[in-house]
C-alpha cells in the first residue's frame, strides 16, 4: 500500500470531523453540548444531502489513488520500467503494441545475462531509497532522473550497442524475437509472470520501422545529453556517446522512422 491512500483517508475524516464541529457550534448556540444533542446532530448529518457531492468527490479521489497504487505495484520491476519508460510515448500513440513489453524484457535478459539481475537489484535499492525519502511525493520521474539510475540505463544501452556490431544481422534477429508470442516472462532469476493471449488477436506487426522507433527512442537521448549528463557519461565511460558507440549510431541513423513503410 502506498502513502497516498492513508493520507487521503485522514483528509476525508478531518473534513467530516470539521463538519461535525461546525454543526455542533451552530446547533448548541453556546449551550452545553449534551449526548442527546450530539446524537441529534450526527443523525442529521447522516441524512444531509449537503454531503452528497463530498461523498462522490471523495470516492472518485480514492478510486484514483487505488488505481495509481496498483499501477505502482505492477511497476515494482524498477529495472524493467527504467528500460521501457522511453518507449511510453510509442505505446500511448499506438506506434508499438504493448503486448511487446514481455518480448522486450526477454530481449534484455538474453542480452545482459546475469547482469540483468544485478541491475534489477540495484534499481530496486535505489527505488526503495527514493520512496523512503519522498513518501507520498515520490514520482517515477525522480527515479528516472536519479544519477545512479541513469548510469544503469547508459550501461545497458552501451551493452546493447556492442552486441549490434553486426548491425543488420542483429536487427533481423531482434525483429524475429519481437514476433514470438511468449507465455511467461522472467523479471528476475526466480520470478516470472504469465501472459494471457487473445486467441483471436491480430498477428503482431513488427518490422524495420518498429525496430527503428524503439532503438531511436532508446539511443537518440544519448546524442542530446545535458551538459551535466554528458559530463557524467564521460566520467563513467571514458568518452562521449558518439565516440564510444559511433559506428552503431551511424547505422541507426540509417533507420528512418518518420513514416510507415520506411526501413533501414
UniProtKB/TrEMBL annotation:
Recorded protein name is Uncharacterized protein
Q: Which domain of life is it from?
A: Bacteria
Protein's organism: Magnetospirillum molischianum DSM 120
Amino acid at each position: 500500500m502506498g502513502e497516498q491512500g492513508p493520507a487521503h483517508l485522514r483528509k476525508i475524516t478531518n473534513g467530516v470531523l470539521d463538519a461535525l464541529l461546525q454543526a455542533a457550534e451552530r446547533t448548541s448556540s453556546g449551550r452545553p453540548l449534551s449526548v442527546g444533542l450530539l446524537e441529534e446532530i450526527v443523525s442529521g448529518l447522516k441524512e444531509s444531502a449537503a454531503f452528497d457531492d463530498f461523498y462522490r468527490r471523495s470516492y472518485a479521489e480514492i478510486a484514483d489513488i487505488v488505481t495509481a497504487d496498483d499501477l505502482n505495484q505492477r511497476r515494482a520491476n524498477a529495472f524493467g520500467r527504467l528500460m521501457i519508460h522511453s518507449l511510453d510515448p510509442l505505446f500511448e500513440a499506438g506506434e508499438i503494441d504493448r503486448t511487446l513489453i514481455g518480448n522486450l524484457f526477454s530481449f534484455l535478459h538474453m542480452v545482459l545475462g546475469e547482469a540483468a539481475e544485478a541491475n534489477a537489484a540495484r534499481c530496486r535499492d535505489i527505488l526503495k531509497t527514493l520512496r523512503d525519502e519522498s513518501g507520498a511525493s515520490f514520482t517515477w520521474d525522480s527515479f528516472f532522473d536519479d544519477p545512479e539510475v541513469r548510469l544503469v540505463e547508459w550501461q545497458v544501452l552501451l551493452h546493447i550497442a556492442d552486441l549490434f556490431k553486426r548491425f543488420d544481422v542483429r536487427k533481423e534477429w531482434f525483429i524475429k524475437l519481437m514476433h514470438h508470442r511468449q507465455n511467461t516472462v522472467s523479471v528476475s532469476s526466480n520470478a516470472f509472470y504469465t501472459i494471457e493471449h487473445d486467441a483471436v488477436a491480430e498477428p503482431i506487426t513488427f518490422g524495420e520501422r518498429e525496430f527503428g522507433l524503439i532503438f531511436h527512442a532508446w539511443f537518440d537521448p544519448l546524442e542530446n545529453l545535458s551538459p551535466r549528463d554528458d559530463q557524467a557519461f564521460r566520467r563513467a565511460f571514458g568518452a562521449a556517446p558518439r565516440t564510444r558507440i559511433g559506428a552503431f549510431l551511424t547505422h541507426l541513423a540509417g533507420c528512418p522512422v518518420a513514416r510507415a513503410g520506411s526501413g533501414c
